[in-house]
User: Which sequence fits this backbone?
């Protein structure tokens, strides 16, 4: 227990001291804040467009934007988690495990009465705490900015949904943090340690969904999950096979439902279960790393 | 033989045996093949749906005829171009970073700098070598795309299509050299190597993924499912008249999109390959006339990145103590 | 009767076909300062890595303070301190943050008072909140000693401790080793290829040649067994070449 807490605390400290990590955290928070600003700017403009149309007598229909859910302003955050959040988590994960191997401090750590599993769980929890703190801050920013846009504090149900979205985001980001930890443990070069999880991320975020749904890569930057074109049996079949592995699309699906995006229907539970299953599997793969791997040298 | 060419030649020899580089290029080629296969399967699905629709019409005794979906072979390459936009840029950054990082790590940099070489020999040689590498890669990917369209897509290719593909390949080469040069410069400037890589990746994230996505989000018509103007049943002429009064907002939105070099590359390749309907089957002269500003900006951006790499990669920056 | 702090029995380690250490059988009594000599690649670092449980033996076993490196690695780790060659730390953390981390990993719950004592003992005060990344080689070496003795280990392992130090740093380190041994009764196992260091600090020595122990005796016996006008350097080369 002592090792877990010590390692977790140490990981938080090291992450917060690294300038690059701070750059990424600031970028993530900046983008979440900016997305609210963009939402507000667009909201104001669209309302003015509607008022102009109404004043010109071109329509008598009610303002369709008025019926949009408050959480609609948060939907861009879904894609920021998949893009910035996942990549930030990869970099933090790689640095967590590569740090000791690069500087040789792994020999100091492993000559202590330290259990490898405890050490790795501690690092995982430390990263988890940093990522949770960032998501907590981004949730507070979202809550405040949406409240300002709506002109009133968000209600209980909406607030709970924002927290649920943050929890989902944590799960996805931790999966990628673990992937980074894994390559940080096993790679012989720092470049490989950073690059391999990036390639895997791009395959999961772009290639697999394309095979399963025929969605093009840039279309996958949409916060709403890609859907299989109706009546295409071949994509139905491939989509069913690749679906469980496309965790970014599963995340987008669950997040869209949680954030009440009307274009996605159904239950989010299957997607949530898949994310949790992958998170548990990845944690297991990382913590069973053999002791000697933690101190294996680098070629760079 | 001058020292710039000696460096470039060494770079080519070095990369020939680089497994990581081979894996990255292989991944890009496979992704391109997959995207052509997926696009052609998608087209066949559309064709099947059309045939079913026509058969149903015939069975019901209708004489109405519907236009069949038309296959434009180069449109099958849209996914491949988008992979180049996103993953090609990412891999170009890694290649640029790796070329400086390996010299610093191995300590071979000091051996090089102890020789009587010119101010720009190192950076110039590196950029020359990497530009040749990207030329080879683009040529290979163009060949892969062409073969994939003909074999997987079962689409006939004409001479003009090859010309369009070669022009798009030229822009792809400029785009990839831009990202490599940027990464070379940033890695040379950073005292800690991984910082250079990560800063380059943050720029990639911002300009390749985030800014184009924000531009899309800010479109007023995208704010309401089904489109704002369609929901309000506004005619196209009225829509344009209304939007003309919000030109400042649209200017910001378009400005954001245009600030990304990726969008310039996308608009150029989509126009020349006819992926954008407006330019499909149009004569090349017309496409050139419309796309010249983007061609100029992409070229200038690439040149600027190469100059940045050359100026940043000095003896002083390269020998800074690593912390 | 003195008990062994370090005792090895046919300790062997191979890397593929290469045998880095062969049948090392050795006893170092408690309270000794033992110097392991050998040329580059003789197997010194492999020996320390095996005794500190960083490597697992291919055959044989070693007991450190009564704990087996094979069956009770956790017990061994509890009993030892270790200073690797060219020690590195977390450069972005301060001296205090680095030492707290290693102290807690060693099981100290509230380590600040102990850290202060150790830093005072090492005459290394006034740098608590300075980042280790700004430290000189000599300062880092003192941080290395501090982290190794925070939990008052019974046995201290030092791998080439004087490597890269200036003459002043070497002298300070030598004094520290002697004081740790005299004042706290710490057994010290030191790898080195500097013969002058061995003469000034060690009470017994061993010589490794191509992974085999070719000599092991007390310093006084070693010096007595050879003509009075021969330096330790001469003795080393005689033993080493005889083994080769």
Assistant:
């Amino acid at each position: 227990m002592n090792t877990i807490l010590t390692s977790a605390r140490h990981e938080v400290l090291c992450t917060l001291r690294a300038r690059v990590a701070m750059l990424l955290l600031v970028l993530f928070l900046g983008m979440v804040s900016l997305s609210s600003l963009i939402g507000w700017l667009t909201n104001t403009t669209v309302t003015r467009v509607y008022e102009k149309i109404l004043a010109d007598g071109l329509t008598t229909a009610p303002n369709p934007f008025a019926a949009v859910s408050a959480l609609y302003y948060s939907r861009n955050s879904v894609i920021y988690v998949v893009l910035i959040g996942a990549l930030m988590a990869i970099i933090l994960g790689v640095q967590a495990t590569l740090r000791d191997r690069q500087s040789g401090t792994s020999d100091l750590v492993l000559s202590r009465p330290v259990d490898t599993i405890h050490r790795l769980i501690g690092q995982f929890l430390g990263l988890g705490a940093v990522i949770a703190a960032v998501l907590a801050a981004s949730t507070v920013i979202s809550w405040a900015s949406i409240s300002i846009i709506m002109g009133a504090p968000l209600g209980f149900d909406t607030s709970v949904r924002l927290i649920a979205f943050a929890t989902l985001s944590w799960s996805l980001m931790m999966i990628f943090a673990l992937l980074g930890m894994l390559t940080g443990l096993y790679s012989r070069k720092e470049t490989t340690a950073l690059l391999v999880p990036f390639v895997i991320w791009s395959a999961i975020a772009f290639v697999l969904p394309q095979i399963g749904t025929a969605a093009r890569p840039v279309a996958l930057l949409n916060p709403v999950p890609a859907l299989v074109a109706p009546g295409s049996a071949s994509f139905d079949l491939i989509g069913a096979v690749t679906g469980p592995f496309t965790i970014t699309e599963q995340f987008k699906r669950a997040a869209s439902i949680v954030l009440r995006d009307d274009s996605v229907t159904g239950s989010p539970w299957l997607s949530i279960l898949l994310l949790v299953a992958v998170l548990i599997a990845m944690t297991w793969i990382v913590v069973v790393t053999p002791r000697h791997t933690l101190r294996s040298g680098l070629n760079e | 033989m001058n020292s710039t060419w000696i460096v470039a030649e060494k770079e080519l020899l070095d990369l020939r045996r680089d497994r990581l580089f081979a894996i990255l290029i292989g991944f890009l080629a496979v992704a391109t093949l997959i995207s052509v296969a997926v696009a052609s399967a998608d087209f066949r699905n559309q064709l099947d749906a059309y045939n079913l629709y026509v058969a149903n019409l015939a069975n019901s005794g209708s004489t109405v005829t519907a236009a069949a979906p038309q296959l434009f072979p180069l449109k099958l390459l849209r996914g491949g171009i988008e992979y180049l936009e996103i993953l090609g840029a990412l891999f170009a950054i890694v290649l640029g970073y790796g070329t400086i990082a390996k010299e610093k790590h191995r300590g071979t940099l000091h051996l090089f700098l102890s020789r009587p070489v010119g101010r720009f020999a190192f950076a110039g040689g590196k950029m020359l070598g990497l530009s040749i590498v990207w030329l080879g890669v683009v040529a290979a990917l163009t060949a892969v795309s062409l073969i994939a369209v003909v074999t997987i897509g079962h689409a006939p290719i004409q001479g003009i299509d090859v010309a369009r593909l070669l022009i798009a390949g030229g822009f792809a080469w400029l785009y990839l050299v831009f990202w490599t040069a940027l990464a070379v410069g940033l890695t040379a400037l950073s005292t800690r190597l991984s910082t250079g890589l990560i800063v380059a990746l943050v720029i990639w994230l911002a300009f390749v993924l985030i800014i184009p996505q924000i531009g899309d989000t800010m479109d007023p018509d995208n704010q309401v499912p089904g489109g704002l103007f369609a929901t309000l049943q506004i005619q196209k002429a009225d829509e344009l008249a209304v939007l003309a009064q919000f030109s400042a907002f649209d200017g910001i939105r378009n400005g954001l999109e245009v600030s990304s070099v990726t969008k310039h590359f996308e608009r150029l390749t989509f126009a020349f390959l006819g992926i954008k309907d407006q330019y499909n089957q149009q004569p090349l002269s017309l496409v050139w006339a419309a796309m010249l500003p983007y061609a100029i900006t992409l070229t200038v951006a690439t040149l600027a990145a190469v100059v940045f790499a050359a100026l940043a990669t000095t003896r002083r920056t390269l020998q800074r103590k690593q912390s | 009767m003195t008990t062994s702090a370090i005792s090895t029995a046919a300790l062997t380690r191979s890397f593929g076909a290469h045998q880095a250490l062969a049948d090392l059988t050795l006893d170092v009594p408690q309270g000794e300062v033992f110097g392991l000599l050998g040329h580059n690649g003789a197997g010194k670092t492999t020996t320390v890595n095996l005794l500190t449980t960083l490597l697992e033996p291919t055959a044989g076993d070693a007991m450190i303070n009564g704990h087996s490196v094979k069956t009770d690695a956790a017990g061994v780790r509890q009993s030892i301190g270790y200073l690797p060659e060219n020690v590195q730390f977390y450069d972005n953390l301060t001296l205090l943050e680095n030492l707290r981390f290693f102290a807690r990993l060693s099981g100290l719950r509230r380590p600040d008072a102990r850290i202060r004592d150790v830093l005072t003992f090492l005459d290394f005060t006034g740098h608590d909140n300075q980042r280790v990344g700004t430290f000189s080689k000599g300062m880092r070496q003192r941080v290395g000693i501090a982290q190794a003795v925070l939990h008052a280990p019974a046995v201290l392992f030092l791998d080439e401790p004087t490597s890269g130090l200036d003459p002043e740093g070497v002298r300070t380190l030598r004094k520290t080793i002697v004081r740790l041994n005299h004042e706290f009764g710490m057994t010290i196992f030191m790898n080195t290829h500097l013969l002058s260091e061995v003469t000034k600090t060690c009470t017994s020595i061993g010589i490794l040649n191509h992974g085999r122990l070719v000599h092991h005796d007390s310093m006084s016996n070693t010096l007595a067994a050879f003509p009075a006008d021969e330096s330790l350097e001469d003795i080393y080369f005689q033993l080493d070449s005889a083994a080769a």
User: Anything to note?
Assistant: The mean pLDDT of chain B is 84. The first helix of chain B runs from residue 3 to 16. The two ends of chain B are 37 Å apart (CA to CA).
